[in-house]
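sry for the spam today, last one i promise. struct tokens for design, 408 residues
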């Protein structure tokens, strides 16, 4: 019934006559709690969750009373929550409840991850943002926003009424005429806060994580946090689940899980791993069903260009697995792939899988866009074992082992 109603009504109508009244009622019910807090909003195509967590850690270590709500975790009133929001912001009642708990705890700060869907659907209506941060804006969510301009303007709406707008240096010219607050920029080589001047030494890899850290450091500056403390926190930050998360093993293989669900995110993740690659780089990628169609081929092309072997697997296909695989494969072929093998299963763990991969010469693996399985080491090893057997003809498992380890 819900899908039928959506097909009959425009998204704008649903936003104005359902989402907006819901947000108003949530604010009214909880008494507009964000008015008692200094609220920091973090948006962008990639890096939102990591930057949100970085800012929270900086404020916490600096002795501030702070709560945080991201799309994968929340810490409110000193209690941790597995939010389970599945890569989007909470509905207005959950959001205002968290804000109310933070205000009742007499917190001074609330750090919120802000998605474009949530902005468009008024989920943050009534939230008084003091600081707005845009990490970057690249291709994503055109299934919903329809055009890049609409997507860009939706993201930009976070910054329109804030006192301080913190943005990636490459966005400055596009936003400066549209923002009334003070603009602070960050970037690798240029910006008010840049790596060239600051020389941050992070434990987590990639230029994109450096940009996330520079965004967090910019926020710390605005809030008058001691820069030495902020920098120390960032340089000790070890990351969060599903974001360039290493799966530890004793066999000498580097296995990473990263929520690279956009073309830009995938390219950044693979580039960071290629910097010190000593062996084969295998990437496992997929794309969601009934979501942005255009990005699928783009991600296939990027993966093929930057990986030695690409495994196409399933990520919430919603019944579209064959279509998704064809579209990803078309991009891989454009980048030079000569043969495509797809896998639409999830594996069960074999104790010696990593050992067999090592014997086959595999030293580096990254599985992307698999947040639902970010703690499942099993998927990675079993899928790659089967893929290698098919693609490079090395018998990593016997037929009996594959039957036991890989379930449909």
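last one done:
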């Amino acid at each position: 019934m819900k899908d039928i109603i959506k097909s009959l009504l425009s998204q704008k109508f649903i936003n104005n006559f359902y989402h907006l009244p819901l947000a108003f009622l949530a604010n009214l019910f909880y008494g507009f709690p964000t008015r008692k807090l200094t609220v920091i909003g973090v948006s962008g195509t990639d890096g939102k969750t990591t930057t949100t967590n970085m800012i929270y850690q900086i404020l916490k270590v600096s002795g501030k009373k702070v709560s945080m709500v991201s799309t994968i975790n929340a810490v409110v009133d000193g209690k941790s929550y597995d939010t389970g929001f599945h890569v989007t912001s909470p509905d207005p009642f959950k959001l205002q409840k968290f804000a109310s708990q933070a205000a009742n705890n007499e917190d001074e700060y609330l750090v919120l991850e802000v998605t474009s869907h949530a902005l468009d659907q008024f989920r943050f209506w009534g939230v008084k943002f003091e600081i707005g941060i845009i990490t970057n804006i690249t291709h994503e969510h055109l299934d919903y926003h329809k055009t890049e301009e609409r997507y860009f303007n939706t993201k930009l709406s976070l910054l329109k009424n804030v006192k301080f707008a913190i943005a990636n240096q490459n966005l400055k010219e596009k936003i400066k005429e549209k923002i009334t607050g003070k603009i602070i920029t960050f970037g690798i080589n240029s910006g008010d806060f840049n790596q060239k001047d600051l020389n941050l030494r992070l434990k987590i890899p990639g230029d994109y994580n450096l940009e996330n850290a520079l965004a967090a450091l910019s926020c710390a500056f605005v809030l008058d946090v001691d820069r030495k403390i902020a920098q120390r926190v960032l340089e000790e930050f070890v990351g969060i689940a599903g974001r360039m998360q290493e799966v530890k093993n004793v066999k000498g293989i580097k296995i990473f899980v990263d929520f690279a669900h956009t073309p830009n995110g995938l390219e950044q993740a693979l580039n960071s791993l290629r910097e010190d690659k000593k062996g084969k780089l295998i990437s496992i990628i997929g794309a969601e069903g009934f979501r942005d169609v255009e990005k699928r081929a783009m991600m296939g092309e990027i993966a093929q260009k930057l990986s030695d072997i690409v495994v196409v697997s399933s990520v919430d296909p919603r019944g579209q697995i064959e279509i998704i695989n064809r579209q990803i494969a078309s991009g891989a072929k454009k980048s030079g792939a000569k043969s495509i093998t797809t896998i639409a299963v999830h594996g069960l763990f074999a104790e010696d899988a990593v050992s067999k991969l090592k014997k086959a010469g595999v030293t580096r693996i990254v599985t992307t866009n698999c947040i639902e399985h970010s703690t499942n080491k099993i998927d990675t090893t079993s899928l790659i074992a089967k893929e290698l057997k098919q693609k490079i003809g090395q018998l990593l498992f016997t037929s009996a082992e594959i039957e036991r380890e890989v379930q449909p």
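The mean pLDDT is 80. ok im logging off now
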